[in-house]
Amino acid sequence: MNMIVPESTRGVSARPPVRWRLCWENDLELADHIELSDFFRKTYGPTGEFNAKPFEGHRSWAGARPEIRAIGYDDRGVAIHIAALRRFIKIGQTDLLVAELGLYGVRPDLEGLGITHSIRVMYPVLRDLGVPFGFGTVRAALQKHITRLLGRQGLATVLPGLRVRSARPDIYLTVPPTRVEDVVGLVLPIARPMSEWPAGEMIERNGPEL
């Protein structure tokens, strides 16, 4: 898959339209990784001193490497990005296949616009992948924000009060190889209804965060 899908932001105030490109990870060229690395450093850098560090050296991923990406471009270059990776997570005693969503970024001038359009673009992608659910996490502090943008519009079910244990992408002698975080979960029912999402507040990612 390496295709352009119709823009979804035409007519929103005076902002230029965004052209979406869906591509498998193997379809990215070196120039793509360099451009995305620059985009993530500029997007994540203002959010914290170390948040841009994973994207140094032209690296366009932070932890686990994605399988498929949706990249939004406008006349200034990369504007919005979201990625997905199929994996099994464990909730209680249930192993569950999901397409984990992550590596979300939006250029500051498009804040408030990007996440809803990103999720809408990813829905048909996840249906084509045949996964039961899409799954993502955000910091607990963003619960109200993400509920307003996604939950109230029916784009995702918001699950507060979750804990996720993930493997660190690198090994350090001074810290454990895994970490546990308090998060808000986002679930997108794709091939199965939300009623089939397993109960449980502890999720084992069994790998690095996307």
Topology overview:
Elements: E1 2-5, E2 19-24, H1 30-44, E3 68-74, E4 77-91, E5 94-106, H2 114-129, E6 133-139, H3 143-151, E7 157-167, E8 178-189, E9 202-204
Parallel strand pairs: 5-6, 7-9
Antiparallel strand pairs: 1-2, 2-3, 3-4, 4-5, 4-9, 6-8, 7-8
Question: Can you put this structure into words, describing what you see?
Answer:
- It comes from Bradyrhizobium canariense.
- It is found in: Cytoplasm.
- It is globular and about 45 Å long.
- The protein starts with a strand and ends in a 6-residue tail after the last strand.
- It is α+β, with helices and mostly antiparallel strands and 210 residues long.
- Helix content is 19%, strand content 37%.
- The longest helix has 16 residues, at 114-129.
- The chain has one domain: Gcn5-related N-acetyltransferase (GNAT) (Aminopeptidase).
Characteristic key phrases:
globular, cytoplasm, transferase, 6-stranded mixed barrel, nodulation, Aminopeptidase, alpha+beta, 210 residues, single chain
Name of the top-level CATH class:
Alpha Beta
Using the coordinates shown, work out and report the CATH topology. Answer: Aminopeptidase
CATH homology-level superfamily? Gcn5-related N-acetyltransferase (GNAT)
How many helices? 3
Largest sheet: 6 strands, mixed, barrel
Strand content: 35-45%
Radius of gyration: 17 Å
Helix content: 10-25%
- Uncertain runs with pLDDT below 50, 5 residues or more? 1-14
> Helix/strand-derived class?
alpha+beta
- Order of SSEs, N→C? EEHEEEHEHEEE
Family: Belongs to the NodA family.
Subcellular location: Cytoplasm
InterPro entries: NodA (IPR003484), Nodulation_prot_NodA_CS (IPR020567)
EC number: 2.3.1.-
